[in-house]
Every structure is written in C-alpha cells, then in structure tokens.
Amino acid sequence: MNITLNGEHKEIASEVNVTELLNDLSLTPAKVAVERNLQIVPRSVYSKIIIQDGDRIEIVRFIGGG
For a FRET experiment, which of 2, 3, 21, 27 has its CA 20 to 30 Å from that of 54? Predict the structure, then answer.
C-alpha cells in the first residue's frame, strides 16, 4: 500500500493503524502529532484509525529545548 508520509511516497504493509505506523517508524505516540488527509488525528483514536492506500500522513515530533 502506498501513502505519502511527510511529503514523501512510502510503501507500508496493509491494514496498519496509526499506532502501528508510529511503532514501525520508532516514534512514541505521546511525543508526536499526526495529521491524516489534512485532519488532526486525536491521540485517543490512533489505534482505531486504519491507514488507507493513498492517505497523506503528516507527523510532527515535539522537541524540547531551552
């Protein structure tokens, strides 16, 4: 299945949810914000949202500093 991830084409396994995608990318769900097809995905539904072929996913990581 093909998606666009942060502006780049990426092939992923079919039937993955947002949590599984983040795990595959070695990202901690609590430290990112996810947008799917121009809509913010609430963290509470990451495990319920199945990534579909052609989806546009944007992931933003939170970075602390001072």
Answer: 27
Domain boundaries of the chain, sorted by first residue: 2-61
pLDDT at 60 over 80: yes
**pTM listed for this prediction:** 0.90
Fold (CATH) for 2-61: Ubiquitin-like (UB roll) (3.10.20)
SS3 sequence, the chain?
CEEEECCEEEECCCCCEHHHHHHHCCCCHHHEEEEECCEEECHHHCCCCECCCCCEEEEEECCCCC
Q: List, for residues 6-16, the tens digit of each pLDDT value.
A: 999 999 988 89
Contact predicate 12/30, CB 8 Å: no
Say how far apart CA 30 and CA 12 lie, in whole Å: 22
